[in-house]
Amino acid sequence: MSTARWPAPAGCRTATAPPAPRALPRRVPLSVHHREPVLDVVVPVHNEENDLEPCVRRLHAHLAETFPYPFRITVADNASTDRTPRIAERLSRELPGTEWLRLAEKGRGRALHTAWSRSRAPVLAYLDVDLSTDLAALLPLVAPLISGHSDIAIGTRLAPGSRVVRGPKREIISRCYNGLLRSTLAVGFTDAQCGFKAVRRDVAERLLPLVEDREWFFDTELLVIAERAGLRIHEVPVDWVDDPDSRVDLVPTALADLRGMARLGRALTRGRLPLAALNRSEGPGGVAGLPPALVPQLFRFAAVGAASTLFYLLLYSVLRPSAGAQAANALALLVSAVANTAANRRLTFGVRGRGGMVRHQVKGLTAFLAGLALTSGSLAVLHRAAPGADSRVELLTLVAANLVATLLRFLLLRAWVFPGHRSRRTTGPSAS
Fold first, then answer.
1. The pLDDT of residue 136
2. Would you say 419 and 351 are in contact if contact means Cβ atoms under 8 Å apart?
3. Cβ atoms 291, 279 nearer than 8 A
4. Which among 27, 65, 132, 288 could bridge 148 via Cys, Cβ 3.0 to 4.6 Å?
5. Which candidate, 272, 218, 231, places its Cα nearest to that of 23?
6. Which of 192-201, 234-243, 289-298, 374-383 has the lowest mean pLDDT?
7. What distance in Å separates the CA atoms of residue 301 and residue 406, rounded to the nearest whole number?
8. What DSSP string runs through 67-118?
9. In what order do the strands lie in the sheet with 98-103?
10. In this model, does residue 426 exceed pLDDT 90?
């Protein structure tokens, strides 16, 4: 049992870049022999005198019955003005493995940042006090972190296999928010806002100093940075029932989230975040300086690219006599681009099923337009510089231009078309 008042993090921010974190070690499974808590579940609360006690007692009973490791529950009270602190203190005395801490400033992100920073448990989690998420998903959430498979795990209400009961207003807002994240920050995870997440402590120690937000955008910022750094994010489809008594003020929260997206986007664009230093050390077969999983992706992409280039050149040679150089190039590139996107979707980035196929092809065709501009431009330059160039010179010019276009295409596929698979996101068994 522990009763403490922890100082809130300073509210002001400086313009200096965050300190470069150390490279993460390789993930390893946790030992089955643990005397200290393996899991620390944080319940952030603000004026929750009605929901706090039934939530903590239900969570404690569930963990005691189902979780095979020692655990701790931490109630993180951020500036409550009702009976919440007294209830939390009493629960910490009555329930073994339950603690509480008190912060003088409000903010869910502040509560999580403080609680996770002080915890020594190797796996850190949090859930909302209303217990909208079925606790049956808690063990599947943390199991990939305990086994060493993943770095972060999140509950998702928007993936196949999830079961959600909520009103149309919150459903529309949630889907619009996550759609906006995908279109602006090119994220691959499906649900940034579900209050049901876990992270390995070694990852949290590197990520938390980089996360600026102390309110509701905290989760999203942490996930975006983790994904951009190439960390593995595991998604668990959850059963979720909306709390009709939710007191989240939607308009100010939405505006704050939009400001957070803009700030984070600027930081990523300007390279202010030390993402490369967050890569995990690779074992045998890893290549220094390249993010994990990049090397096999490059080999698969190169193989697909070689086959696509041969197909493109063959198609161009067939079409050139009747259609002319520019038209033959455009048509051959279009057909090979569609085939290339389909092959890379399946072979390079491991995307199965039809979900998102049209979106991937549309984005792939956008990358095709960049390649078309590059190759067509090279032909135009060749014809201006050497009007009498024969077809062999044209082919050599196109091969060189296509090599550059291929590199550009790989970067676009990895960072924009299939961003979630760039970060090796995994999904629970019920997802496709």
1. 96
2. no
3. yes
4. 27
5. 231
6. 289-298
7. 9
8. --S-EEEEEEEES--SSHHHHHHHHHHHSTTEEEEEESS--HHHHHHHHHHH
9. 3-6, 98-103, 71-78, 39-45, 123-127, 196-200, 152-156, 233-237, 426-427
10. no
**CB contact set of 170 (below 8 Å; sequence gap of 6+):** 242
pLDDT in tens, 235-247: 999 999 987 666 6
Residue 341 neighbours by CB under 8 Å, 6+ apart: 360, 361, 364, 365, 367, 413, 417
Asked if 206 and 278 touch (Cβ cutoff 8 Å), the reply is: yes
- In this structure, what DSSP letter does residue 31 have? P
Burial 80-94 (b: 16+ CB within 10 A, else e): beeebbebbbebbee
| Sign of the four-CA dihedral 242, 247, 253, 257 | negative
- Write down the residue that tokens 């231009």 correspond to: 401
Contacts of 219 (CB under 8 A, 6+ apart): 109, 192, 193, 195, 197
CB–CB of 419/188 below 8 Å? yes
DSSP state of 347: I
For the record, the structure tokens of 341 come out as: 């996107």
For 305-363, the pLDDT digits (tens) are 788 888 888 998 999 888 888 888 888 878 888 888 888 888 887 776 676 788 888 88
Q: What mean pLDDT do residues 243-271 have? A: 82
Q: Which of 104-108, 227-231, 357-361, 404-408 has the lowest mean pLDDT?
A: 404-408
pLDDT tens, 76-120? 999 999 999 999 999 999 999 999 999 999 999 999 999 999 999
Task: Report residue 78: phi and psi, to 5°.
Answer: -105, 95
Element (H, E) at 377: helix 357-385
Q: State the DSSP code for 354.
A: S
Q: Which of 35, 43, 38, 99 is nearest to 67 (CA)?
A: 38
Task: Give the torsion through C-alpha atoms of 84, 166, 152, 408, to 10 deg.
Answer: -140
Catalytic residues: 219
Q: What is the DSSP letter of 413?
A: I
> The whole model's pTM is what?
0.67
- E strand map for 244-292: none
Q: What tokens does 91 get?
A: 């629960």
pLDDT at 293: 56
Report the C-alpha gap between 241 and 431 in whole angstroms.
19
Q: How far is CA 141 from the centre of its chain?
A: 15
- Backbone angle region of 271, left / alpha / beta, with phi > 0 → left and psi within -120 to 50 → alpha: left
